[in-house]
Amino acid sequence: MAKRLSTKRLALTGNEAVAEAFKQVNPDVAAVFPITPQTELMHKFAEYVNDGKVDTELIAVESEHSAMSAAVGAAAGGVRAITATSANGLALMWEILYIAAGMRLPIVMALVNRSLGGPLNIHCDHGDAMGARDAGWIHIYSENTQEAYDNTLQAFRIAEHREVMLPTMITLDGFIISHTTEVLEILDDETAKSFVGEYKPLTSLLNPDQPVTMGSLALPDYYFEHKRQLVEGMYNAPRVIEQVAKEYYELTGRQYGFLENYRMEDAEAAIVVMGSAAGTTKEVVDSLRDRGVKAGMIKLRVFRPFPHEQLANALSHLNSVAVLDRCISYGAQGGPVFGEVRSAMYGKTIPVHSYIYGLGGRDLTPHMVESAYNDLFEGKSDPRMRYLGLRE
Amino acid sequence: MSKLKGWKDIPIGAIVPHGGTAFDYETGSWRSFRPVHDRDKCIDCLDCWFCCPDNAILAEEGKFKGFDMMHCKGCGICAKVCPPKVGAITMKPESDFRE
Amino acid sequence: MAKLTEIRWHARGGQGAKTASTFLAEAAIHAGMYSQGFPDYGPERMGAPIRGFTRISDQPIRLHCAIDEPDVVVVLDDTLLDNVDVCEGLPETGIVLINSHKDAATIRSKIKWKGKSLFIVNASGIALEEMGRPIPNTPMLGALAKISETVALDALLEDIQKKFAKKFKAQVVEGNLRSIKRAYEEVRAA
Q1: % chain A with pLDDT above 70
Q2: How many other CB atoms are there within 10 angstroms of residue A330's CB atom?
Q3: Is the ipTM of this complex over 0.90?
Q4: Quick one: pLDDT band at residue A2, thresholds 50, 70, 90?
Q5: Containing structural domain, residue B78
Q6: C167 close to A (CB below 8 A)
């Protein structure tokens, strides 16, 4: 049984919740550049800096490319560095995302998911994060404000673990979570601080007793080996993610892992989904269950490293599966999560279907989710991806 | 050539974990010409010491002492900058020094 | 079984519907309920029709979508009735609250909805008298407290008082509190 600590119950938006977690962590450096819908997050954090609630060095840079570069510089200097962005901001960081991962710098970034356009759009989809899926970052998705806060605290522990040493992004759906006021239970500052712990860098450019070179050149004779090392960090991450989640559970009673299995025990068909859509999907599962339909849901919390084995096991007893992607991989057979899920299900004969929803902030209603379940239970099959909430 | 290390044996994040690592790197094997010094002609002006891009001129107390053959790439700059009236350094084919 | 109340706000950009939807959520959360408050975001255009949403429940709220079938509709500007179907998706058992100085028959004639529980309050008039500005959002919260089981008047007043005291002069805080109380008293069934 988890012991309950003193917690505060607040009404905050997702952006404010992440800013609150960052405040409790009190990182050494925050590199910031505004972009909707992330702006309020760092705006709030900048207030904490201004009010002396944290002693973070806040660097207002001139672009997101510079924000990530500054975070890399700070992390290479041996300190805890954070940043936050959305969509086009993440796209502008793209080059440096790979550098951060390759240098094994445990930067923590909040990504407030927004579509990349064009046409220009400021609303939520996962196209931004998916563009960075192969950059070597750990990706953790949040269903609501509470998870955005909880994931932020856990991200530092995961990123900074000696056997992981990978930059980590926690994501929250733009506007749907970032700008929605919800109930949030926070830890008291001391508990949050001691959970995250003090940062002890592996190396630092600013240590005169141990001069090192970082960001060095690796030619064909060594580059490949370094990339294989990064893979090892990803291989080690699951153990750490689970350990950190276990400790967090003991602290808060809130359970985290790779997957949240919702009414899966005797389910016949299930939807796999990430982010805020999971909550809406749970409501639909409950209403289907009330009508005797054996529906289940799996919420994917961690997209990188992708929990292939756990997911395959969790889905193995079903008749069919639908994967809901808030992103299209143009020219592919389905969305990016679908591709991973079907790959995880290799060798099994359970059909896996791809549905695209919510691009550019299109609302995902319970009716749309239900229509996907109806397809599953009626055995309607389509080798191509299908769309929820799209006008023909 | 030293044996290349596997991925488990190299520093994480491609860091170079200490300073002065260029010293360990044997660039002397790159030479196709070798500088040869004539003590009798040398006036110890040390122009060669200033100009050598590889720090391969050894000097002590203001005097030319020799070449660091582990690092000399045989570029010939030392011979070029040696004053024409002095001509204390000449470049000879490396193959003449090998069996 | 969870008791969920879904409220949809209709207003024009600049009238404070986003703020009202969020204030109500905050007041409900501070009163120990579960709640969500969020607007339909878009480019900020003063005067353009906008919507805000509030969910209140005694159980954690998992839905993360707009409210298409509300229990309560709140309209901050009666000129919207001519070009927005504010009652879309509202069942006849629902509640409508409209800020207007017009009479019940005029308002009835402008909405397609046939339900009983229609309420009118002159929130802009109250705001103008009490605060000198026709910003109807806080008085509308007061009227809403009277006609629906969302949040109690005392809890609302306490929450607004605390929140506003941090940001505004005492005069502004008092004006808002008076507006809320007046709207609570003056809202009438139509």
Answers
A1: 98
A2: 5
A3: yes
A4: very low
A5: 24-97
A6: no
